[in-house]
Every structure is written in structure tokens, then in C-alpha cells.
Amino acid sequence: MSANEEVRVALLDMGVDAPKSHQAAVRFHTVDAAINWVFGEGESWTPEAEPTPSYNNTAWPAEPAAVPTLPPRTGNPFRPGPATPYISPGAGPVRLDNDDDDEELLMALELSRRNPDEDTQGGAGASASGGAVIGTTNLSTSAPTAADAGLSREERERSVRASAPPPSPHRQNSDEPLLAFGPSERNDLDGKLAMVPTGAAASNKEEEDFQRALQESMMTASFHSIPSEEENIPIPVDRKPGAPVVYLTVQAPAFAANLLQAFAAVPQLRDVFAGLAHDVDDPQELNALQELMSEQYSGKENFVNVDNLVAGLNSSFEVYSPRLPPHQEILERWLPRVSDLLVQAAGTRSQLIDFDNALGDFYRKPEQLLITRLSSAPDVPHPYVEFGRGGLSAPTSVHPNLASILWTADTPMESISSLADIVFVSLRRTPGISVQKWDLEQEIVLDRYLTHNAVSTMQVRAQQSAIQGELKRLKEQAEHLSSFRGNNIPDAIQTLIKHLSTTSSFDNVQAETRTELKTKLERIATTMSDKAARLQTDVADREKLVSGALFETADPTKNEHKYILRAILWHDGFMTPGRHLFTYVRGDVDKSTGVADWWRIQDDAEKVSWEDVASDVTGQFTDGGPYLLVYSREGSRPALPSPEPEPETSAEKQMSVDSVGGSIPIPVGTGPADAISVDEEQGLIDLTDTPNPEEVKPAPSTMDALVTPAEGDTASPAAVPGSIEVNTAVLPTALQTTSPVGSMSLPSVPLISPQGSRSRSSQSQNWIPGARRSTSPK
């Protein structure tokens, strides 16, 4: 009886074993009935035992068409039946008639069934009765038997088809057995003779890499997000001289380990964790971090597995689903909680503190180690700042991005009231949008953003605004000098000069005119080239000033907050499973060269140069790149001076409003580039300098040149109260105004940010998003 396939498949899907499913499908043709039998009467059913074959010992019939009788087969499809017995060749004589059409085929069949060792013991002979009797050991003639007479042609053909193929006619007699199937014993190392190749075909490395990349591209990120532990744990070796101890994870998120690696690269944070005395009342998280940081001083092996530590910190800090870079969730929860742990530890040890030791700054104000506060919202802690990277025109360094966040139209006087010793800069990149390479800076000075420098910063920003206006005018002049209605003027003049030089005229008057015209054009081209070069120089100088050169000063009070780049967290941009995160950390300064070492960390520490770090473009074209920069203060924390006086009179405030957003009037037509006139009689451009042109004075290159009076300059005897004395003699002509000689009064309201208006809440979130989630220690 055939089994119902639908019932059998349904039972297999339910987990019923195959023999019982088949038996139920044979007995019943509905799923319900089969299920009732399986879990009812048939629960104790077992497959029947295989019957013992009862083969007789009599010789098999010698006829080719004879088929032995097989024992009955079982109904179980999963138990194979008894093997078909092999008929020994030569068990009896076979009579072949000479009148058969397939005599040669039957002869070859019988020869193939003979033992190869007996080929030489017999021969073929013709019988007197017209027939031949073929045996296994000899050839003899005999009369046809009654059994042979009953064989039909159809039966003999069936026997031929069921027999083995004849031997090869070219095969020589040997003692080796003839193998029709099975593995070959020939020397085939490459497996080329096998029907199925035994070894992989040799391929080049490029093809293997392509196939591997193709397979990874077809996998989803959730296919195997965490690799197996056995395949990825390296063998620990001795630590390299000067190399940091690597914090390795196999199952935990790699970004958490990279963040811990950045912690260890910051001297202030590393020294605080290592310098805190152990206390039985300290939280477990603090003890674990202290033990981890101590590995940087006493560790002998190259790495430490931090899977358990990261899992414990994530659980304690309530981090459940770390996202891809820049991992705001871990930053938002880890940094405030780590700061709370350190503040709590400093509070319990305050009675035993020596404020003159290396950790004096930390014990005086422990929160300032990681937390920054703004003047507009001093009660809101900010553990990190975030810069959005959204296009090719977006700024690619710290200062322009930080200025666009702090100095907006809604918060023009925003400043930093308390600057953390460690600044975390998160770079958030929009997927699918191309960006320029980020300019990595080893040192940055952040004094300009502090509250006590707000007035001098406002002055420099006003000068930057004025220089921006002049820069725009110079660019327009350079464009008008080089092109007219889409045509390049210098190229057109050179083409005309070449034409006049290569052609001649037989008319003497015309030839003389052509010579004068050529001379005039050459002088014009030279003058235009010189003026274009001067304009380009002026543009370059003013672009440098606009980019922040005015803030550069030798005044030590304006260079107290210098920060050094300590760590860079990097993502290669790929989303396929694998290890795509690595970290650059700054090492100790080499005493022989005075240059700090850098290490690239990904499962191991590899020494690299700063040039390699600064030129790394990994991830730039795959939505990757650096996503977290860690800066820390150089030296001790300076004492905060008293804030600079601010303008208080209403007259000055009204003046700042009347100055159109803080811009300074820029006179037009005061430079030598404007001295371009047209000679209407000759129809030629006369670019000669005008008599006594007004000389453009060099632009100030630093804040010192801007504020300090030059030799021979006199300060204004009657400056407006609250204004700032500025040496206008060193400013460009376009920056000089009608204010008193030698000084100028600047408005108290800075310029509106070109980035557009933003709300104060948005500004606070851009400075450090998610800071409101953190709780200050009680």
C-alpha cells in the first residue's frame, strides 16, 4: 500500500520520526487520523525486524535468463532489502545456436563472465551437430538440452542487458583484478582523472579575494554578528617595548574596548584610576576600571580580554543595544557614569588629600576632569561635543565646527565657563553623503572659547568679518580681471600676440601698426599677470586670517588651554560581519627624537608614524573614517582669571546694532587693483598704475599685530568707555574707519554665524547630545 505523501510530510514537520510517519501515512490518509494513531495506539509501535534471508545451497541455473527467487522484502522504505545474489560465472554449460543473430555478442558476454586465469585453458570448437558448448574450464560438444531449447530470443537479450560489460579487447592478461568502478589507483595527484575532482582547482589570490568579498556582500549584518571564540582569540605574546596593552574583545562590542583603549591613552585619566587608593566601599565598576588601567603599568602580555568587564559595565550603565559608529548610546551613558564614579571616589578620600601632588587638580574639582559647562546653562553637564559632517562644503577641523556651534545667531555671546581636562569630539557622518578628509590636528588651543576671553574674542571675530568682506571684493576683482563674458582675457591676448608674431604685411604702415599693437599687448599681458599675482597673494593672506590666524598670539595668557590629541577611534565603513573598528593612540615621547610614538591597535599594537595617521583615508569613500577624537589638556589646569570688562553703556549697544550685525564699513576702490582704465582713442586697455596710488597696508597676521600699536602710532586720547583699543595702522586699508586716529571702537555684538540660526536647545544638544540623561552626584 502506498503512503500518503501529504500525511507523511505533515508528521515529519511535527517532529515524528521517519519510520513511524511512513507507517501512519500508509495506514491513514488524513492528518488527523494519523496524528491520533501516532500519539495513541501507535505510540509503542516499532519497525519490524528485518527477515533473515533463506538462500538455498543448490547451484544456480546456468541459463542466462534464469533469475533467482529473492526472499520477501519488508515494507519499511528506510530499511534496504537483501542484496541480489551474485551468479557465479561458469556454473553450468550454456548452449549457443549458430543460427542466432547475436552470436558474437553472446560470445563476448560469455567470455566476460569467465575467469581471466582460465582464458588459456580452453578453446573454441565447432560441434558436429552445428552447435558449440562453452564452459569455464574446457570446450566440448554436446547436444542441446530441453531447458536450452525453451529459451526465447527476448529472454536471452534481457540476460545480456543485465550482465556486466565485456572486457576491453586491449587489456593484457595480468594478475590485477579488473575494477569497473571505484577509486583509481593511478598516480593522479591533482585529481584530474576523477569524475568528481578530489581537490580544489588552483586559483589565483585575486580570484579568492573576489569570491570572499562576494560572499561577504551577500551576507546580512545579523548572519553571524559575533565570530566564534575559538577562531578569533589570538595567542598572547610578550608586550612590545613602549607598546600599550591591548584591550581585546571577542563577544562584547568592539567599540567599548576601543573606548577603554582611549581612556588608557589619556595620561590624566590613566593616572587618576591608577592613583586612587583602593577602598572597600568603592563600587565594583570603579575597582574593575582601576585594575584594568593598572595593566598599562604592570602588564607583561600584549593583550587583556575585557569581554566580562565590558558586559558588566554595559549592564551597570544600562547600555543594551550599541549601535554602529559613532555609538552615541555608549557615549551618553558611559562618560557621565564614569565621571560620577570618579567624583564619588574623590569625595570619600577628600580628608586624606594632598592637593600638591600630581592629582591635585582632580581632587580640587573632580567633575572638571570629564565635564564641560557652558555659560548659558551652567547647570547642564556636557561630557562630549558632536560635529555633524554633511557634505563636501562642511568644515573639516575642530575650530570651524566648534565656532559654528557656539557662536550662532541665537547665542552670539556663548562661551565655555568650565572646560574639561579631557574633551571627547564625536564626528557624526551622514550615510551616503561624500565628505572631505578630516584634518587631524595634534594640538589645539581653546582659550578663545572661554568666558574670561569673550571680549577679546569678540574683537577678533569682528576683524574676521571685515576681512571676509574684503576677501569677497578681492575675489571679484580677480575674476573680472581674468574673464569677460565667459572668455579668458589673458588667453585671448596671448592668442592675438601669437597671431601678430606669425603673420606679416607688405604694407609698411600696416606692418608698423602691427608691431606697435603687439608691443602694447605684451605690456598689457605683463601688467595683468602682475596684478593677478598680487590679487592672489592678497586673497591667500586674507583667507589665512579668516581661517583663524588672528587668534594666534604669543601672549601666554591666551595659550593656557592647549590640548593634545591622544586617541582616534576609526571605522572602515563596511557593514559586513568582521572586525572593522581600530584605534590610533598616542604613546610616550621619544627622548632621542622628541617625537611621540603612535600605535595602531586592532587585536595587536602596531607602531606607526604620525604621517601615516594623518594621511589615512580608510573609510572616506565607504561612510567611515574617524568617528571619535580624544583630546586632553597639556600640563596642569590653569587658574581661572577674572573676566574681562564688557561694554555697559546703551550708546555702545546702539552702535553695535547700527553696524549691521557687527560688520565694519569697507570702502571700495582703495587698492591698486582698481587702477584699470580704458584708452578710448586707441581702443586698448591701459593697465598702468595711476599716479600716487593708495598703498594697501599689510594685513595683520596675528592678534599681537592687531592689538599692539606699531612704532610711530599714537593711541586715541579719548576712547569710548568699554571699547577696545585696536591698532588700525597695521590693518588693511579696507579695515580702517573714520574712528579716532590710531584706534577704533568695536561693537559688542558679534557677527551672525553664516551657518544660519539655531535654537539654544539645539546648540546644547550639538555640543554634547544626551547630556540631560546624566545625573550629577549627590
Automatic annotation (TrEMBL):
GO-annotated cellular components: cytosol; nucleus
Compositionally biased residues, Basic and acidic residues: 151-160
SMART domains: UIM
Protein name: USP domain-containing protein
Source organism (scientific name): Apiotrichum porosum
Domain of life of the source: Eukaryota
Example GO BP: protein deubiquitination
Residues in coiled coil: none
Region annotated Disordered, chain positions: 59-99, 112-189, 635-664, 738-778
Record field: compositional bias (Polar residues): 135-144
InterPro entries on file: Papain-like_cys_pep_sf, Ucp6/RUP1, UIM_dom
